[in-house]
Write a structure and sequence with these properties.
167 residues, alpha+beta, 2 domains, 5-stranded mixed sheet, 3-stranded antiparallel sheet, 3 helices, 8 strands, 26% helix
């Protein structure tokens, strides 16, 4: 965190040769700043994907959350989708889109282990290797309903809810 010449706080991040600066006016209320924010998001996603390809996957639990998308036609994210790999239908595991608007303690991610974790890692790999428009989630279609699936490996720092303790 830095302070600019006008006394505003700014977040500076560097990925390779790309620098990302986010300040309080970086939103879509100003179309030009919105374009810059959209570019920064795309550049960050690309840099993460490049870094991802050089890493080796861990062999442990996977944490995931699936949200039902109420109207997928509003975006291009679901022009191309993947199939859900687990025996339990994604419809039984998903939460409603409105419940993810703000962090709510009752909305929890799910931990998959063993064979299910391996299947979710493969789903994530297919998404990373494919040409999908969705930058942050795996687009899944099941029986005409659409889901945003967020998948990540668990790490030792997280608690039972998937949050990191800073104590």
């Amino acid at each position: 965190m830095q302070v600019d010449g006008a006394g505003r706080k700014e977040l500076h991040a560097r990925l390779g040769d790309q620098e990302l600066i986010v300040d309080r006016s970086c939103d879509e209320s100003d179309p030009e700043r919105g374009k810059v924010a959209h570019w920064a998001l795309a550049a960050t996603s690309l840099a993460i994907a490049k870094l991802w390809n050089g890493l080796s996957e861990v062999d442990g639990p996977v944490r995931f959350m699936a949200t039902r998308r109420p109207d997928p036609k509003l975006t291009d994210y679901f022009d191309k989708t993947l199939s859900w790999p687990l025996l339990t239908p994604v419809s039984q595991l998903a939460v409603e889109w409105d419940d993810t608007d703000e962090f709510r303690k009752e909305v929890k991610s799910i931990v998959a282990e063993g064979e299910d974790a391996a299947k979710l890692r493969e789903l994530r790999r297919q998404w990373l290797d494919g040409e999908f428009y969705s930058p942050h989630f795996v687009p899944v279609e099941e029986n005409g309903r659409y889901y945003e699936v967020f998948i990540r490996d668990t790490i030792p720092l997280e608690d039972a809810t998937g949050l990191w303790s800073v104590k």
